[in-house]
Structures are given as C-alpha cells and as structure tokens.
Amino acid sequence: MAERARQALETREAILDAAAAEFARYGFSGARLDRIIAATGFTKGAVYFHFESKQAMADAVLSGRFDAWPALVQDVRDQGGRGLSGMRLLAWRVTRTMATNIRTRAAMRLSQELRLVPHGVNPYEVWAERFIPFLDEAVEDGDAPDSLDRARAAKTIVNCLFGVLSVAIDSGTEQLVDAELEALWRLLTPGLRTGGAG
After folding, report:
1. What three-state secondary structure class fits 82?
2. What is this structure's pTM?
C-alpha cells in the first residue's frame, strides 16, 4: 500500500512538472492538455485520474507558489546573512530560484496572466517586508544612515529584482541573471549607503 501511494505521488509530481513547463512557456490560455499529457509519457486516463482539467493543474501549480520563500530567508539567516550582504544573498537566491525553477516560473506567469492576488495580499509588498529587517541591520551596522527610508528602499529593490527577472525570462537569458544582478547591486549599494542622498 505504501509503495502504491509513493508511485501515485511520483506520478502526480511528474504531471505537475510537465504542466508547469507548459504553463511557463505558453501561459494558461496557450497551454494545451494534449501536449502536457504527451510530455508526461502517461496515458490520458492516468493524467485525468490526478487532474480533471487544465484549471485543476494550474490551481495545483499555484497552490504552493509561496511555500519556498520562508525557507530561503531562513537559509540566508542560518548562513549568518545580515545587513546589506545578507540582503544581497537573499536577492540572489530569490531571483535565481524564480529564473530556474520551472514550477516557480509557471506560478509566476499564471499569477500575472490570471491577475491572481491571494486573499488581497500583494506578493511584491510581502517580499519588500522581508527585506526591511536586513535594511534595519544595515543601519545598526553603520552601513546605511538612519535617514534611509527602509520601506521605500525595500520596495524599490523588489521592483528592480522582478524587473531583472522578467527581462531575463522574456529574452531567454536566464543563464545571465547573476551578471545582471551584480550590475544592479553595484548601482543600488551606493544609494543604500548614503540613504539615497547620492
């Protein structure tokens, strides 16, 4: 019985990976069930056993779209990340994950296409809030002045990160995202260290 449950879970995950690849490439409206089924290598019956429709697959991909983020923040903290260097590391982790993880990319595209904001929560604002403690530490450590508007700075950083990410995905240059992030960080750091005073 345990073996059957394990196989069922593996089948479901394989279907979700195929669906995510389809959604990431074509969006919800352009995704086709026949391509998803073909990509899995399973029978149509096996796929429909787990998901009754394209919408059900999209819902499953979207359901876990925020699950990984607290762990990413914790991982940065566990490595001693704090202040500007910790925020830089977190920015790298988040952007790289979004650029390279197919389920994350699919969820991001679906969210944008379907204009999904869960329970009235703006995910960009949530991310900005996660950067604010790092900016508070930068002020405590003397790497940024107390005059720094941390909420505004965090929002700007998130806007920039998602801009870099969107351009990389749209242009098919995900492999260059690290270099783009480095260039961005070189521009942002002086402004953070002077409180935006130049």
Report:
1. coil
2. 0.74
